[in-house]
Design goal:
The chain is α+β, with helices and mostly antiparallel strands and about 140 residues long. It is built from three helices and five strands; from the N terminus they run H-H-H-E-E-E-E-E.
Length: about 140
């Protein structure tokens, strides 16, 4: 009886260690979800409202300052100085109206666009966004 009892006691702590290891593995996946909802809340107040001087339905003119084809983002410079903060507008490839397979812009290209609410940008802070980007006259962009 003594040998059997001793073996039983030795096995029990091993099971507890496994249970503890299992519990530790389960905890990390449950921790990240509560952190994720906090991220948009931090970014929200940073966003800049569309200034009252800007008509979101009006078409503005400008030129492409830069464009990163890999990331699909670029910067437009409105022709009207002082129209937007820093005279810069963020543009995403999805807003470029073109018949080409992969929308892209090249620096110096003249474009027309509308201005929408800002999107927080990690590198530059919050900037206003260009929408419905076309070639002059509302034509598709050709690069």
């Amino acid at each position: 009886g003594k040998k059997g009892g001793g073996g039983y006691l030795k096995k029990k702590p091993v099971k507890k260690k496994e249970d503890l290891a299992g519990a530790e593995e389960e905890k990390p996946p449950s921790r990240p979800p509560p952190l994720k909802p906090k991220v948009p809340k931090k970014a929200g107040p940073v966003a800049v409202e569309v200034p009252s001087t800007i008509n979101t339905t009006e078409v503005y003119k400008g030129t492409v300052e830069s464009y990163d084809l890999r990331r699909g983002y670029g910067i437009l410079k409105p022709a009207q100085i002082g129209l937007v903060p820093e005279n810069k507008l963020l543009v995403h490839w999805s807003e470029v109206k073109t018949e080409e397979e992969r929308p892209r812009l090249v620096p110096g290209l003249e474009v027309e666009f509308k201005i929408s609410a800002s999107v927080p940008d990690k590198a530059r802070g919050a900037v206003l966004r260009a929408q419905h980007v076309t070639a002059p006259g509302g034509k598709p962009v050709v690069t």
